[in-house]
């Protein structure tokens, strides 16, 4: 059964430096990390203003107050990646951990208390499911640890977003045993296929993804509910990554906004799902510009809601709809 109105879904990958350790130095990314808490408070303000239901996928490490508490709660069985540059357990042992870059339990609690916001998991340790040196048992212990720390803060996990969008389909059947009913799959285009770090995305894929931000290469990437997976956990695939503001690319901001609006309009008119995502730390620099851009999107959502009944739903709410539709 198709939906009788379009659905607007937003998800955010809340990872702080845990998700950037293998990409950029902490010093280079300091501004983004230190401004993330402020960016989140402002994102939540806008979500409340425009009645947006969103999913926040949190890396489990962020729940702790400091390194000592984190070390006391690590799972006994852990991955040992062949690529040591991506091994956060190795990283923890080797460095001191700056609070602003690695921990934010008070921010998580603020999100939990915010209306219509879902806390999901981004795994406990920013776990990479396609890398050599990890297996199903490692993943299970990681998942258990993520659920345990979330419950300690009063959150019941129903959704998961895989770090680096590395979705290992062999692990999906494990999720339903732990109450996880949805995950964010990748856009249905060759340029967004999951790859491991060794393989990496080809230059052709990277260029195509970049251009797709501004011009229509992969189409709208919207989905009818009856096209989505009919078994738990439900795949609620991404539609578009909200690329943050760049001074160098400022002349193309209108193109980026137009691309997103056209996607949203198509979804609203055709009663389809549109899933926008980004990282809170993306708003850590040029925060004002990024928030203004987000507000333009949310204002447009309100227009589409008035005209076509476009409806904001977080991932867990979409999964509940799928359960009803597919009975």
Structural account:
The chain is of the alpha/beta class and about 325 residues long. The protein has a single domain, classed as Alpha-Beta Barrel (TIM Barrel). It is built from eleven helices and nine strands. It has helices at about 30-50, 65-70, 90-95, 100, 105-115, 135-150, 170-175, 205-210, 255-270, 285-310, 315-325; strands at about 5-15, 55-60, 115-120, 160, 180-185, 235, 240, 275-280, 310. The strands form two sheets. Strands 1, 2, 3, 7, 8 and 9 form a six-stranded parallel beta sheet that branches. It has a three-stranded parallel beta sheet with strand order 4-5-6. Helix 9 links the parallel strand 7 (about 240) and strand 8 (about 275-280). Helix 1 packs parallel to helix 10 and helix 9 (about 255-270) runs parallel beside helix 10. The longest helix is centred in the last third of the chain and has 22 residues, at about 285-310. The radius of gyration is 19 Å and the shape is globular. About 40% of the residues are buried. The mean pLDDT is about 95.
Which features would summarize this protein structure in a list?
alpha/beta; 11 helices; 3-stranded parallel beta sheet; globular; TIM Barrel
The tally of helices reads 11
Q: How does CATH name the architecture?
A: Alpha-Beta Barrel
Work out the helicity level: 25-40%
Determine the oligomeric state from the structure: single chain
Largest sheet: 6 strands, parallel
Return the CATH class. Answer: Alpha Beta
Computed over alpha carbons, the radius of gyration is 19 Å
Q: Rough shape? A: globular
The H/E string reads: EHEHHHHEHEHEHEEHEHEH
Q: Per CATH, what is the topology?
A: TIM Barrel
First-last Cα distance: 10 Å
Q: Compute the average pLDDT.
A: 94
Low-confidence stretches: none
Strand content: 5-15%
Number of domains: 1
> How many strand segments?
9
For CATH, the homologous superfamily is named as Glycoside hydrolase/deacetylase
Task: Give me the secondary-structure category.
Answer: alpha/beta
